[in-house]
Design brief:
Layout: E1 3-6, E2 12-16, H1 26-43, E3 47-52, H2 72-83, E4 88-91, H3 102-107, E5 111-112, E6 116-120, E7 124-129, H4 139-148, H5 151-158, H6 162-173, H7 193-202, E8 209-212, E9 218-222, E10 228-232, E11 240-245, E12 248-253
Parallel strand pairs: 1-6, 2-3, 3-4, 4-5, 7-8, 8-10
Antiparallel strand pairs: 2-11, 6-7, 9-10, 11-12
Helix pairs in contact: 1-2
Length: about 260
């Protein structure tokens, strides 16, 4: 599993996921994009690195010479942050797994398709990833990941005209959990499959934090005696993010005034 090392003093690591830009309507997505840009403007002042942990877009497919229309303010802000020398890391989720090399070439943002480990000051270890397909359940997303990860299917979809491909994608997107979410799905205790995954992983190797998205619910739960499972929630209604510093961690919601 890949590992990154960070040596923090006064700065912080920031984590957010599940922006789902593009849904449920242009107007709502555009307002959410402005809020995300405001958040990035705020945290860039003390960010050692920023981790965007999957499903930033409700759908993303990179044709050879075409990327999805829109999101220019968000992408421009990421370019500004990278030009300022602040590392940004992107994790594919189940909605934007067809991210190829655009972020890496155009924005110099590494793209991770699996979980990675962060080492902080050689003292703390953080396992971070989107979280789809992990744990004992989540069979639907495990199937989708296998299906949509098939290179033959990706190649065939790439031959569709972008107007057709994007129309099909947005029709599928309208059926998604986040587009039809009326209220947050409550914590399910022993049926929380990502929490179970963390406890199983912790029994084999200690990590101080397990940070995931995908669940669409802000969660902060103990994993054993000295570890915590953090789920980042989402930005359609909750606007939650995580920061980790030398003084501790915070899972909180963003308010831009």
């Amino acid at each position: 599993m890949p590992q990154l090392e960070f040596h923090l003093t006064s700065k912080k690591l920031y984590f957010a996921s599940d922006f789902h830009l593009g849904t449920p309507s242009w107007e709502e997505s555009r307002a959410r994009e402005s809020k995300i840009v405001s958040w990035l403007d705020q945290i860039k002042e003390d960010a050692e690195a920023i981790f965007l942990v999957g499903d930033l877009f409700d759908f993303w497919f990179e044709y050879k010479h075409v990327i999805p229309k829109g999101f220019i303010r968000f992408l421009g802000k990421l370019a500004e942050i990278r030009d300022a020398g602040i590392p940004v890391y992107f994790f594919t989720g189940n909605h934007d797994m067809w991210m190829f090399d655009y972020f890496e070439k155009e924005l110099e943002i590494p793209v991770f398709r699996q979980s990675i480990i962060l080492s902080i000051n050689n003292e703390q270890k953080v396992l971070v990833g989107h979280g789809d397909g992990l744990g004992p359940g989540d069979w639907f997303y495990k199937f989708l990941k296998l299906l949509f990860g098939n290179p033959i299917l990706q190649w065939l979809f790439g031959w569709l005209h972008p107007n057709v491909g994007m129309w099909l994608a947005h029709a599928w997107s309208r059926r998604s959990r986040i587009s039809n979410m009326k209220k947050a799905d409550p914590f399910k205790n022993e049926s929380e499959w990502l929490w179970q995954y963390c406890k199983e992983y912790e029994s084999k190797e200690h990590h101080d934090f397990y940070v995931f998205g995908h669940r669409h619910l802000p969660i902060d739960q103990p994993v054993g005696d000295n570890s915590r499972y953090i789920n980042l929630g989402e930005w359609v209604s909750q606007f939650t993010f995580l920061s980790i510093s030398t003084t501790g961690y915070e899972l909180k919601d963003f308010s831009d005034g």
